[in-house]
């Protein structure tokens, strides 16, 4: 790969720009679930609106991220990366000033499209700017900074929301303006433009089919913004149409000269297994991390600051364990670590379900989150190893991109499908109080003691159902890992 994008003196500016851009994506991804209750209260958004605020972003990010990676090669990495940052920042400003849920959802969708070109570029531009012998250190600095922002983002966001009230969710998006402006300035003034690969073709048709397919499936499961669950005819019609388009997408990818999703890779057992368990595990993780903060803040009345502190152990343990688990995977293979980690994650989710009626943040939720961090810390690095080592060296980049896209799609489908479960269980659990203006994840004023008890009980039942479903999916991930991924036999000790 040509190293004409940066001189030795300007490489640090490339690294800083990549860190700033990644920080925007990580902060938005980690803080939005804590901010959702404030957004709902401030804008009067329904549960379905909240799902679309998350899924509008995930939809375009997951559908376009493979196209975004290829566009960097086709049009030049600096140009594509910079364009992704600009779109992301402009959409963030619209998010910050959005007067209604509909405007916020549209802006989040545009933000996701920008992220699809920004996220792949952050690592790729580092790899292109640094020679191979210095690349590991640079990526290590980027990874450490990314971990720091992932950990610190929710804490800062939680305290801001607690201190300034519901309107301050807008600051979560406004912070992207200075970060993005600084990244763009560094790219424009300190980094030379790289040479594009003129012969590279983009799979525009595949990207359009994937986007429409996911959009129809999400719309079928979520509905148009009403609090009640979508009707059966609505679900069957739109989900069915989405699945048909998904089939057409697969046929196109099988025949396209330059597919964004090379189906030939799925003939490799380890690659298929790694992506299957990724979908199941990240479906579970995405569902719990979307509905848990809403349950605690809107359902139990916990402050966003305390919720962010309760979620802190996951980020810390994940960061600390990832470097060790990668080395362990080299010794014993990825299968044992991923299987063990998935079992621990399943236990964490089950514990969250069992203890939900206690409403105990520090002695029930926080230990469960620590257990979740322990499990994911054993999974993340070995999973990357499993994906990378399952394919030929020339396919590692696209294999990593596919696995990243699968994880995003899993989160998208989880929020859409589990939202249907939450709304159904919540309404059924309310019993006679279902006629009152009581909604999942929102406090209600003027209720009698019996009605408030019914609201809390329905909240707990809805979240516990999510916890048990995701625990079962995590168990499935462990089974898939054990059956499909590599296990190395340890040499006997003398």
Automatic annotation (TrEMBL):
It is found in: Membrane. Pfam families: MFS_1. Its main location: membrane. The chain crosses the membrane at residues 12-39, 51-69, 81-99, 105-127, 139-161, 167-189, 201-220, 232-252, 273-293, 305-325, 337-355, 361-384, 405-426, 461-485. PROSITE patterns: MFS. Keywords: Membrane, Transmembrane, Transmembrane helix, Transport. It comes from the Bacteria. Residues 14-489 form the Major facilitator superfamily (MFS) profile domain. InterPro entries: MFS, MFS_dom, MFS_trans_sf. The keyword Transmembrane helix applies. It is a multi-pass membrane protein. SUPFAM superfamilies: MFS general substrate transporter. This is MFS transporter. It comes from Devosia yakushimensis.
């Amino acid at each position: 790969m040509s190293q004409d994008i940066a001189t030795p003196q300007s490489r640090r500016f490339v690294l800083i720009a990549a860190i700033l851009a990644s920080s925007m994506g990580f902060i938005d991804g980690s803080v939005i679930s804590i901010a959702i209750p404030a957004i709902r209260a401030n804008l009067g958004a329904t549960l379905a609106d909240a799902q679309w605020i998350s899924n509008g972003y995930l939809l375009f990010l997951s559908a376009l991220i493979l196209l975004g990676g290829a566009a960097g090669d086709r049009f030049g990495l600096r140009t594509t990366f910079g364009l992704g940052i600009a779109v992301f920042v402009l959409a963030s400003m619209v998010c910050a000033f959005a007067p209604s849920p509909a405007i916020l959802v549209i802006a989040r969708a545009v933000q996701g499209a920008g992220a699809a070109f920004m996220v792949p570029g952050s690592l790729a531009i580092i790899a292109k700017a640094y020679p191979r012998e210095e690349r590991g250190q640079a990526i290590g600095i980027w990874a450490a900074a990314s971990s720091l922002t992932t950990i610190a983002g929710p804490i800062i966001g939680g305290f801001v929301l607690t201190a300034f009230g519901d309107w301050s969710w807008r600051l979560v998006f406004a912070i992207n303006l200075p970060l993005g402006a600084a990244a763009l300035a560094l790219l424009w003034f300190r980094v030379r433009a790289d040479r594009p690969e003129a012969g590279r073709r983009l799979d525009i048709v595949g990207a359009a089919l994937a986007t429409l397919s996911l959009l129809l499936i999400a719309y079928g499961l979520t509905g148009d913004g009403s609090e009640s669950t979508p009707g059966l005819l609505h679900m069957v019609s739109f989900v069915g149409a989405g699945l048909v388009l998904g089939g057409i997408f697969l046929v196109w990818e099988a025949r396209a000269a330059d597919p964004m999703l090379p189906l030939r890779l799925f003939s490799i057992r380890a690659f298929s297994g790694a992506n299957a368990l990724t979908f199941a595990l990240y479906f579970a993780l995405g569902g719990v991390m979307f509905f848990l903060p809403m349950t605690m803040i809107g359902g139990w009345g916990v402050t966003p600051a305390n919720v962010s502190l309760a979620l802190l152990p996951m980020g810390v343990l994940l960061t600390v364990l990832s470097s060790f688990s990668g080395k362990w995977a080299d010794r014993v293979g990825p299968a044992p670590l991923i299987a063990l980690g998935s079992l621990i994650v399943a236990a964490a989710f089950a514990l969250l379900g069992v203890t939900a009626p206690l409403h105990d943040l520090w002695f029930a939720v926080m230990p469960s989150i620590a257990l979740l961090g322990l499990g994911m810390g054993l999974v993340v690095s070995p999973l990357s190893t499993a994906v990378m080592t399952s394919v030929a060296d020339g396919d590692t980049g696209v294999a990593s991109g596919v696995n990243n896209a699968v994880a995003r799609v899993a989160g998208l489908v989880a929020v859409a499908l589990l939202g249907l479960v939450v709304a159904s269980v919540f309404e059924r659990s309310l019993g006679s109080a279902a006629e009152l203006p009581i909604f999942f994840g929102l406090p209600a004023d003027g209720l009698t003691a019996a009605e408030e008890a019914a609201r809390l009980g329905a909240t707990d039942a809805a979240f516990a159902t999510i916890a048990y479903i995701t625990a079962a999916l995590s168990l499935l991930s462990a089974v898939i890992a054990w059956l499909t991924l590599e296990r190395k036999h340890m040499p006997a000790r003398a």
